[in-house]
Each structure stands twice: as C-alpha cells, then as structure tokens.
# Entry
Amino acid sequence: MTTAWTVDAVGAHLTLDQAGHGEIVFTVSNPGVTPDTAVLRLAPDDGVSPSWFTVDRPQRAVPANSTVSYLVTVNVPAEVPAGRYEVRASVSSADSPPEESSRFSGRVVVEVRRPAERPRRRRWLLATVGAAVLAVALLAVGVSLFRPGRVPAAAQPVSPPATSPATPSVSPSTSVVVTLNMEALVDEPATTVTVGGAPARPACDGRACELWVTNDCCHYGYTEGYALGFFARPYDSFTVTVTVAEGGDYELFDVRLLGPNAGRTMYLVDDRPVGEFAESAARYRLTGWTSHGTVRLTAGAHRLTLRHLPLSAGDGRLAITVIDQLRLVRTGS
# Structure
C-alpha cells in the first residue's frame, strides 16, 4: 500500500543574507498505520539550479502516524542577480518509484538581495577635487611652519573609545565561569527531550520535534563550526546537565542564531524559571552573549532545561532554536 505522505514548508518565504545563504525547514508526515522510509527531493523552478540546495539526510525512517523534519541549506552563488526564485519539495517512499508515491509541498520563495551599486563619479571630477584639497592643505602647512615665533604645542594623549565587552565581565572575586559548547551535549546519555509532557528520546525520532547538531553551513560563526538545533512545538523541551564547582548566584548567558522562524523560549534550572527570550530577525544572524537572568546554585550538578513557548495564545506552530554556546558566570557568593 502506498503511503499518503504530506510535506510542508515551515515558512513560505526566505530572504537570504548578503552572502546568499539561508535555511529552509520542511516537515514530512506519515499519517498511515505502517512505518515507511521517506526520501525528500527538491524541485526548483526553471532558472533555479539544484546546486543551490543541500538536504541534510534526505532519506529518513518515519514511524506510523509521525512527523520528521528536514533541514535544507541554501547557498546562492554571488553571480546570481537579485530576485525571487521558487522551489518545492517532493517526498516519496524509498522502496517505490517516485512517480507512484510522490507528494509536493507548496512553493517557497527564495529572495536574493544584492547591495545597491553606488553611482560612478567621473574621474576628472575626483582628480580636480583631490588636487584642490591637496593645494589648500599644503598652503596651510607652509603658513604654520614659517610663522614667526611658532612654538609646537604639546601633543595631548588620546584615550581609546570605550567599547562594550564581547563576553560577560568577570571580577577576580567572583571569577567562576562555566562555558558549554551546546552541540557537545546532544548525544550525552543524560540529555533528555520531552514532547507534550512525555519523554521522546533519542532525538525525538519519528516525532514532531528534533534535537540535532547543525554545522555552520552558512558561515554564521558557530564556535568550532557547530551548534545545537531544536525544532519543536510550544511546551516541548530538552534538558541537559550542567555542573558548577562552587555555590553562589550565577547569571546565565547564551549565544544563539536569530532568524525568521526563531521560537520564544524559557530557560529553567532545576525547574525554576530563569528568563524568557522572544527575539527573531528577518535575516539569520548570530547574537552576542545575551543575559537571560540570575539563579542561585549550590555546588554540583543541575538540570538546565530550554522550553519552547507559544508566540501568541493558541499558537501551536513549530519553531527553531539554535544555540551555539551557554555560559554561567558567578556574580556573588
């Protein structure tokens, strides 16, 4: 019996960054009572090269009455002009010809933007202006040098401009810092995933969520080239174990990827809420270190949970959270 697959794009429009990079997420559902293996392929419109798109693990086992997600990275060459290009996804069973079981998603518009070219100025005008500026400068220098009784003024020291710290500040008296590369925790035995209040490990296989390691395909700047990805509905969560050597008040920071499908999230430590985050962006970009609040910890191991929250009342849409690093900084004993 042929599986009646369904395939949908999480978003119908993707605006690439200035380098021509971006990501699309498709969900594939098996509504039947028999497990099957799905193969996701992309069907670009005319004028769109298939080489722009890369599907992460195109062949997946999908249990009965379950959903899996596919991440598609988009890399459009620099010579492609600005414009809107369209692509669809098709899904079929691995053990049957595509023409017998294929189902198609709706079209996704991929928008390519290029920086506007500055108008060219005539070279003779630039040369004339440059010569005039040089003549005035030389005249001013000559008058200053040959003026009678001239005494050079002492040079005043110039202080460098103040800049914001790139990382959380740590004073010597409270310099206890725990930094985690989050992708390293995905396959830890102690890491758990919860879907609708029920455990769903490993990695939400066959469920409407997934915890995975994502590589830095689009040069966002992930530490060591990888980050943790979580694709889930509201109230789904994952939990990792963090350990601090000394007790005290700790401020929680992270570095994450913002994008059009970024979810609203909450951190909890030992089931105590620490802070919510609900920022998104039209284009994908990596944040700096962002504070989520302070929590008091004893020395030892603790459960740190990230939970998806609805963006609005009744919202049940899937969302993506990508976290590069997490840091706990002790702010007081």
User: Anything to note?
Assistant: The domain at 172-332 is CATH 2.60.120.260 (Jelly Rolls). Confidence is low (pLDDT under 50) at residues 143-166, 169-173.
